[in-house]
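Support request, priority: normal
Reporter: lab tech (M.K.)
Component: structure prediction queue

Hi team, I submitted a job for Acetylxylan esterase from Streptomyces filamentosus yesterday, and the status page still shows it as pending. I've pasted the exact input below so you can check whether something in the sequence is tripping the parser. The sequence length should be 324 residues. Please let me know if I need to resubmit or if it's stuck on your end.
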Amino acid sequence: MTLFDMPLDRLREYRSASVEPEDFDAFWAKTLGEAREHPLDARFERVETGLATVETYDVTFAGFGGQPVKGWFVVPAGTAEPVPAVVEFLGYGGGRGLAHSHLLWASAGFAHFVMDTRGQGSGWAPGDTADPVGSAPAFPGFMTRGVEDPETYYYRRLYTDAVRAVEAARSHPLADAARTAVTGISQGGGITIAVSGLVPDLAAVSPDVPFLCDFPRATTVTDRTPYREIGNYLKTHRGRVERVRETLSYFDGVHFAARATAPALFSTALEDQTCPPSTVFAAFNAYAHEDKAIEVYDFNDHEGGGAFQQAAQLRWLPDRLRVR
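Reply from support: The job had stalled in the queue. We restarted it manually and it finished. Here are the results:
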């Protein structure tokens, strides 16, 4: 695939046409307030993985509606005092996987909290969290579940789970709540941006080739899934375009980015048709914190920087978390 989106100089100036709902803040304050009416009830149970360098805990906490959400909590073996924490959100279709699968951040000296993704976990890594909330007719996948009303949309539940995951991670005595970062790839990157606008006291944010940004452009510039799920839904449900667009505006990373209060390291790939670079730059250019940077991978598709981006994060994150 060759370059298909805007030239890089235009990307650096691009602004989304996504219209922010007037009640955006009120909607999310109400949503999170309702979630917090349920006790967080974060439980950490030590599991044996056969690994000598880390200690791993099986986590359960109360997410949206008080519903149970799973996760892993991994710390360097022998950790006795609180260490900076990295909360990770996962890509589309994947779950938390097996207990021994997550080593990078704990190997770097951080506490690492991996949130399972409700209802997914069957595409590329297994998950253990159900989504007990039903929806109206939807196109196969998750992008259109409840998409005609912000109250019923799938990502209302998932973004709420993510905020509660940060709270659960911070509740563990080995996690330094004041030095907490969030990160994720693709869908996980989009969730990361949402959390950056919903949790006001994060220390750092690192969305990697993020999904769920600039819906007006994303749904028209690429025909790859998952964005194409929305087009396929509207192909069948003619005449509902404006209703769907209004719903999506409550979940657009562009609007969360405008509320961010933590330093950020983004990444994008110029041949990425799954999360087109213009949609990533839309969120990056709207990102409110002045300490922000974006790694650009010129000849990559949705794999982005891969291990090169991890290396960039490992150089960038310790300064923001004030690692001693």
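The first helix runs from residue 8 to 11. The chain has a mean pLDDT of 96. Let us know if anything else looks off. Ticket resolved.
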